[in-house]
Structure formats: C-alpha cells, structure tokens
Amino acid sequence: MKTKVVKKENEGVKVIPLGGLESIGMNITAFEYGDSIIVVDCGLSFPADDMLGIDLVIPDVTYLENNIDKVKGFVITHGHEDHIGALPYVLKKVNVPIYATKLTMGIIEHKLKEHNLLKSTRRKVIKHGQSINLGCFRIEFIKTNHSIADATALAIYTPEGIIIHTGDFKIDYTPVFGESIDLQRFAELGKKGVLAVMMDSTNAERPGFTNSERTVGQSIDHIFDEHRSGRIIVATFASNVDRVQQIINSAYKFGRKVIVEGRSMVNIISIASELGYIQIPNETLIDIDHMRNYPDDQLVLITTGSQGETMAALSRMANNTHRRVSIKPGDTIVFSSSPIPGNEKAVSNIINELFRKGAEVIFQDTHVSGHACAEEIKLIYALTHPKFAIPVHGEYRHLKAHAKLAEKMGIPKDHILILSSGNVLELKDERAKVIGQVPHGGIMVDGLGVGDVGNIVLRDRQMLSQNGLLIVVLTLSRYDNRLLAGPDIVSRGFVYVRESEMLMEDARKVVDAAVQKCLDGRVSDWSKIKSVIRDTLSDYVWKQTKRNPMILPIIMEVDV
Amino acid sequence: MKTKVVKKENEGVKVIPLGGLESIGMNITAFEYGDSIIVVDCGLSFPADDMLGIDLVIPDVTYLENNIDKVKGFVITHGHEDHIGALPYVLKKVNVPIYATKLTMGIIEHKLKEHNLLKSTRRKVIKHGQSINLGCFRIEFIKTNHSIADATALAIYTPEGIIIHTGDFKIDYTPVFGESIDLQRFAELGKKGVLAVMMDSTNAERPGFTNSERTVGQSIDHIFDEHRSGRIIVATFASNVDRVQQIINSAYKFGRKVIVEGRSMVNIISIASELGYIQIPNETLIDIDHMRNYPDDQLVLITTGSQGETMAALSRMANNTHRRVSIKPGDTIVFSSSPIPGNEKAVSNIINELFRKGAEVIFQDTHVSGHACAEEIKLIYALTHPKFAIPVHGEYRHLKAHAKLAEKMGIPKDHILILSSGNVLELKDERAKVIGQVPHGGIMVDGLGVGDVGNIVLRDRQMLSQNGLLIVVLTLSRYDNRLLAGPDIVSRGFVYVRESEMLMEDARKVVDAAVQKCLDGRVSDWSKIKSVIRDTLSDYVWKQTKRNPMILPIIMEVDV
Q: Tell me, what's the ipTM?
C-alpha cells in the first residue's frame, strides 16, 4: 500500500471545493496535482426559500470543463442526493468514470438510467480497503458508518502527503449491516502521518456521541410490542436502508406483513435488496393491492413523506388523496426521522392532520442522526493527528463549531482552514495557502431548464408572489399615435376583482387620463408612455391599498 | 366575592371559540349567557406559508356583529399580538369597552393610537385580584406568569359555575418582576368547585417544568462576565420586559451602557418604563447616536430580530444595511430567544452571517419558554379539579397532548373537550355539548385591504411564484375580426429572455399559427380563441421546458 508518486518542484497539491461550504448540500471538491484532477462527490442542493419554482441546484463546473483533459474521475463517498444528485447534469459536460462502493453505485446507476446516461458512463465498483490510482493520485476507500449503507471515507495519497476526506459519517460500534467504521485504519494512517483531514461538520455543535442505529431498532420493537392492534405506518428516509431493515425485522417478529409505499422508497429497497444490503424474509413483503386480504393488526406500511412533503405518500394518506390508504382511528403512525431544518412546520402540519384523523402519532426517540457529534469528531482527530484540519459539510456555523473542536484537539489555529467554495487551497511543503479562486456557484434547474432562470426571473417571481400584477394594455395607431383601444387593466394575484370593481374602474380612469395627457402632449416615445403608466398606476394603487403590485404596460400598434 | 346571577331555565352558558384552536395565534373566545356576551382576547395570527403577500390574519367576528347588543366587552389576558393584535380591526365593527391589566392596556393603547382609535375606545385597567361585572358574568383577574409581564388568568363566574381561562401562562416561583402566579387562588376556587378550565397547551408535549425567567438572568450575567472586551449585542423578543430588565441589570453590573434598537423594542421599553414595569438606572440608557463616545467594551445593544426577520435591526446589522451598526470581529451576539416554529432556517441564516463577520454567537441556554410544561399543567388540574377540561392555545397535536395529561389527572375522557373554532359549546347542569356552529375563520389583511384577498388571488400568486407568466396580446378588428396586431408574447418570471430568445420566438409562431387557424375558420368567439391560445401555448411550453407558467391571453378590439 506504499504510494510512489513523483513530487514536482514548485508545485503543491490543490484542494478546490466547488460547492458545499456555504450551506448543506452540493458537495463537490476537486483535488489537483500537475496534470491530474480527481473530483470527490457531485451533489445537488435543494432550493433555498427565495428560489421560487426552482427544482434543484447544481454546481458550476466550469473549472472542470476548462481542465477536462486533466479530470480522471468522480470518486463518490455515498449515495445521498447532496453527494450524487448533480451527476446526471455534470456528466453531460464532464464525462469521466465514476468510482464508488456497490450500493452507492447501484443508486447512481438507477439515476443514470432515468437520464439515459447509463451506457455512456464508465463505472467501477470499489470495495472498502481497496485503492485505485487516478493520475498521480492513489485513493483508498475506508469503511465508515452513516445513515445510508456503504458510506466510505477516502484517503487520498498525494505527492505532498495523505489527505483524508471523511465524507458524511458517524461512528457506529454496533451497525445494523456490515462492519463498524474502520477506526484502526484511521489510526494506522495517523501513525504514518496525515497532511490534512477534511471532516463532516454537520453535528459539530452537538456534544457527545451519536447513538447507534440499533437503538432505533429497539424503540421500534417496543412500539410494535405496545401497539398490537390497528395498522402501523412508519415514515422514514427512503435511503436509510438499515432503518427499513429494522422495521422489517420488527414486522416479522410481530407477525405483520410489510407494504412499501412511495416511489423513492420502492426504488431504494429494490436496489438494496437486489445487491444484498437488505434481507427480507419470504412472504413478508406484500403488494399494496393485497392489503385488503389482511386484518389491520397484521399490517405495516413503510412510507416516504417523513419531511411533510406535500406530494409524498404520507401526506396523501393524511389528506385522503392517496388512492389506496386513508388514515383512520386505530392507526399508529411513527415518524422515524427528524425534520430537516426548514421542514419543521410542514412536519408539524402533517402531525396535526394525522391526530385529527384519530390516529396515534409517535415522533419521539424514533430516530438517530447519521452524522458525528463533537466527541466523534475529536476521536478522528485523536487517531489521525493531521497537520491541517479542513472542516467541511455544514453551514458556516457548523464549520466554526468544528474549528473550535479542532483547536481543542491541539491543531494550531492557523492550521485550521475554513474554505469558501471556489477557493484554490495549495498544500505544499507542509504549508497551506489560498492561492486563487475559480468559478463556482449554484446553477438553478427548473423543469428541463438548466441555468435559464436567473436573479431577474427570481426577483419577478418574488414580486408576483407578494403582490400580483396589473397589466395595462392599449393599442395605438402607427400613423398618428391615436389611441385606438384601451387602456384596459387586467389583474392577477392582486385583489378579488368582484369585490374591488370600483377600485379597478377608478384605476382605469386614472391611467386613461394619464395616457390621454401624454398623447395630447404629442409624447410618442413608447418607453416614456409606459413609464407614465407605471408611475401613475403605482401611485394610485399604493395610496388606495398600500400595496405594490408589478405593473406591466403593453402597447400594441395597428396600421391605421 | 360571592356571585349573584340568576339562572335561567332551559339555557346553559355557551363557550364559543372564534379562533385559536386550529393553530397558534388568533385567540378569541366568546362566552354567552342570556343577553350577555363577553369576549376573551382578540388576537391576530401571522400568515401561513401559502398565504403569499399577506401581512396578517384576523378572526371573522360576524357572530359578534350579529349579536352586537349583547356584547359587553373584551377582557384581555396579556399584551401579545396573538391576544390583542386584531383589536384595531375588530373594534371598528364591535366597539365595546376593553378590560385589561395596566401593562397590557399600555400596549393596547399604543396600538389604538397608531390606528386613530384611542378616543373612540372605552378602556378600563383592572388589577389582579379585582373583579368586574359584565352583564350576567363576573370576571376575576388572577395573577399568572408569562413571557410578558402583567399576564392574567380569568375566573369567569357564570350561572352554571366557574370557568377558569388561564390565558398563556407558566409557573414562575421566582419571577423577575412582581409576584408569582397566585396558586392559592386557583386552589381556593378549586375547593369552591370549578366547572371548566380552559388552559394553555403550547408546551403540553414537553415533560417537566419550565425554568424560571431568573435562570436566564444568571446565564446573561455569566456571558457578560466571560466577555469583558468588545460589544455585546443581545437579540430578544421586544415584549419580554423582564428579559430586557435582566440584560440591563447585567449591563449595569459590568459597567456597560445600553442602547435599545428596533422600533418595537423602543416602544415597549418606553411603555414599560413609563408604567413602572422596568427599572433603568440613571445614565445607563444612551442614544444610538452617542454610541461612538464609548469604547466597545462599555456597550450593550438590545435589539429586535431574534427570529431572523429580514427587516429587523439585527439582520440589518449583519448585512451591513443598518445605518449605525455593523457587526465586526470582537462583537459577541447573544440570541436570548429560541426560533418560533417555521423560523428555524431564517435564524440559522443570520447566525451564519454573524459568524462570517467574525463575531462570536451564543444561542444556547439563553432562553426559557413562557408556557407551562406538562407538570405545570398537571399542577393546575390538581389545584382546580374542574368538571371539564378544555385544552386551548396550541396546534391540534398540543391540544391532544394536553388532553392526555388531563386524562392522567383523573378527568373522564368524555369531560375533556377539544373544540374547533366556531363550535358553540353549551355547559348546562354539569353537562357539555356542542350544540351549534357560528361563522368563523381567518380574514386576510394585505396592506389596507381587509378580506379582499381570497383563495383565487392566493392561487394566482402561488402559480405566478412557481412558474411566472406568459401574456399573449393581440388586436382584432371589430368589423371583420381581422388580426390587426400581434399575437405578441410578454413574459415575467418565466425564463431569462435573452438566454431563451429562440424558445420565445418559436412560441410566438406556434400561437400565431393557432390564432390564424381560428380566424380562418371564422371562430369569432373570444373565449374560444383565448382557450385555443392557452392550450396551444401551454402544450408547447410544457414539451419544451416541463414548466407550467400561467398563460394570460388578452384580446383588444379596434373600430376598423
């Protein structure tokens, strides 16, 4: 496992995060040395609250496109959307091989299939403990634990030393599937000497240790034991295969059949089951169409929608819009999840609705995080003793909290590096310095459009959403600028017109007078007329209603 | 204190919640007997996420308007917006006297002044322990504790028995200002016999006791002690006068001058100080304009914006848009608050921004709730032993959790009443029954408009916010339906037009062809033409972009 890479004079290894450091999501980091670039992860982020109508956000990879000849491949740490979700978009521009563990690759392949990219993409499944050579880098996959199976940390051997990238991780001494995190290997590398550790910061603000996934299994068993009558419906994250396994185990133990509901849940379970990451006893899984053949106390539904997503299965069940399942008294609904920040209200709304339908709802002690808390972060530092600490994965507050932990662990303050996306960090001769900046940022995806919605469009959507709009249309004669028709006012999202007929009619008169005055004064410049309409109407409406609708004058011209 | 009210045959006392039972906020409950109605509280609620552009929501008081001759007055439990905020709107329709404690009345008067309603509104300040007679009701004010001073519970003496309404409350044995909650009086009433208790459910899901406000004072003292250099900026709720008092105490103790920032903070502190609810040592308060005369380590700012509100002082300081204060390294910012559900992300965003500016940010152990937890709720039941429990103030999940506590306290299940807004609950001869329904609901206020924005307008705003709109304009001849101008397409919030010129031009051609076909086919019905335009364009756009903008055809007609 000795690395032999030739060290070049006058050049260090560059670490270039292209996303993921300003908020949760969109994780992608390039490592560059000489003529080699490798890219760790390629995630998307979900739109911020002010990105109205946007489906998802992907990273700007201009830097990779500009250096396409150097790029050797994507190395993926695990199968969550914030680490793989941008692949289908980015591969169209940067078509290089993907390296990942088996389950991660299974999930990626499903995604590529949907985008018709499976054939055109080279892929290689890597096992924990195995290493690959990409250009001048050697990359070793090290087993970790996370809220999705088959997560990996990476030891990246560079000419300047070893950089460890943990990916998202936690330490689970008693995982549900497979081995515990390979702490021995972290220790071994630490003994050897580690240049830098880039480590998950998500839970850096939380003291102590994250509980083992197995503790949730015990809670679920307990809930099944206490609720012997009625259906049990468990909502959780589709990708948490170990969680699903434990729910299935409890179902089997208590003689209940399992129904899986929600598209993403069905997909992931079928991938995990096919690849051997989940064991489903014979005849345990039944189709939703056969549900009616079983009494309620022999049924468990495992469903999506634990985040209160309006279109997910659980919401539809709660609102009686699901084609097969409606919530009824006697049902027990378990949220095996906690709300992702920003989803608290949506989750609370659905909990209220479920209670209203007469169900019992359980949402406490039924979830553990997939991320390392403070003591776990400290343990990794204790084992690896890196020269540099680079907190990653988290909002700025989490990176700061992580930095404080690193400092406590004896890493000098100037060796703790909080980077920004686009930074080019050079590590050379055991010194670290941000030496430049490359293009970076989020590209918004709306429907099929990638990048065609920008700030102007968003600002318009924002304005329309708050106050609606008033459209003023009029037709002028091309020859003598005579008013042939209009001005008429059409409104949308402004007021309920039937209730406000007077207001709208008065507004029309005010605009009419202003337009007439323009035309009488021989103003023939359309942009001038439009600006008079805008000012007049906006003044009038503000005075009457204290509102600021968008005002859109449209002038048509006719050849008479 | 003996009540003498004549009991009528065939009639019970009616409890009619007009709001407040479907979500947090908009608390207002009518109590009716014979020809007397009293109204407890008159609050607003803040708009739900899907109420785009709405400023606030007030209750429908049609029932009170229809029975205006019976209505004797508003009895207010405390000065929070969700208990007093709708008064300025409702008083215009239901102009009856207001009864409240001194600080509560001070805050109400400030509000009435802003709405020019002070002169036209009769008001009476009531002391704790005092009773008033309103129609056939006697109402006694009982001291409680809450996150605003001068909160009161009400014992409402009715011909059917005593109904206790707690308002929002907690039990604080060591309050910062004034007395602890008058538990003895609750006990005395319990001995006498209580018909029903209507009690705050907000924290019913939380086990244990809510900590005393004084514990926050100790934390703040500790923070001041540990941070002797640099400015300290404390963000908290404007109305929490006791909190502000404790911050001022710490400032005084550690030799710092206090600056108050944010309009609502300045208002409340001036009202509280005038009425003697806050003690500010001489020369402690300074004007923000004199800030520059003091070194940083002699300054404390108390500010609004603890909920991440974009326009509040703290946000503006963090974003360098505040006219006097910008956050800088060395500042310590204390969030003496916790995020109200739904505000988590906004608060996190501002914490990130403050860290980015180099400040230290403290947000743990610096706040206590103003609401009773499970053990406090149980204590009130133990003291009052009511025949009926009516959980109020909270989302449905909280009312359910409260109901479980009441059951544990020995109240029979069928004597625990979870009401819905608009229900008419009759209590008669120690029986309770919902006997009817009155109009109720939220009326949306947008600018000056009260109720002129309804579901159609909101649906339009929602649609506009997600996908923007396409306007198709064309001019026809009145005589022969000839196309004189257009069709032109104008878009807003759809795509960035310069990037999508081709798409827009092709869309125009598609619409043009469809319109020509209509006209060639002698279709002269405008609604038919509009529907063809809508269908054609919407199909085309969906195929090209997988988006669904609003499509708005406008036809003009010219006399040629």
A: 0.87
